[in-house]
Amino acid sequence: xxxxxxxxxxxxxxxxxxxxxxxxxxxxxxxxxxxxxxxxxxxxxxxxxxxxxxxxxxxxxxxxxxxxxxxxxxxxxxxxxxxxxxxxxxxxxxxxxxxxxxxxxxxxxxxxxxxxxxxxxxxxxxxxxxxxxxxxxxxxxxxxxxxxxxxxxxxxxxxxxxxxxxxxxxxxxxxxxxxxxxxxxxxxxxxxxxxxxxxxxxxxxxxxxxxxxxxxxxxxxxxxxxxxxxxxxxxxxxxxxxxxxxxxxxxxxxxxxxxxxxxxxxxxxxxxxxxxxxxxxxxxxxxxxxxxxxx
Length: 295
What we know:
The protein has 295 residues and is α/β, with parallel strands linked by helices.
């Protein structure tokens, strides 16, 4: 079953994200895929947000697909002009990718030492509209069945909040929204309550993010450096006090998954980690939300 099919047929979808920074070659990537595959509905292939060099997402998707893995390919507008974006889109369709996540990408600082330039020929909204127009024209068969997703930040909205940005993404062709990493469950509940009241869940599937933290040091780094990430002090305190931080991180993540599965309007969760990839299926198993595929 593909990610697209899982969103239609499952109450709670689970995806895992490969860490391309730790996959210098096909063998290392395949190993990550084989670890994740039994526990998830699909594997997300994310682009690098920094200037660090790593394998291209499209190449990673091509390596994973022969294993029977359904990749959700992230496409970042920061690094490519529209010609390159469409070429990648056609290539992704040609190898069988059926779901993409379109993101703007974090802007490089002018003072970065690498000399790398921001492209931003198209915004994420513009690229999604471009894909939508290709679908509606009927002249581009490769785009017809493509599931397009957008990203969003979780926050605690005010009572008068109107989800204008989410509505725009929906009108531009997004059919799922992948949200920023948030360990603060009261914030997630308030956000999703407003989303449900807006009736956007009738049009969009909302995927939350979670992560088995490997250490308190990594938790601090994520909170300080990952855009939109929210990790309460109480979570970091648990990690600092734990005799086995990795196991504590898995347990915290399992608790979050269980709670996310109970929140109205949440369609699923995507798990990523800066620690060992094995902690992702461990957290899924500990959460009890599903059985591995081969069980």
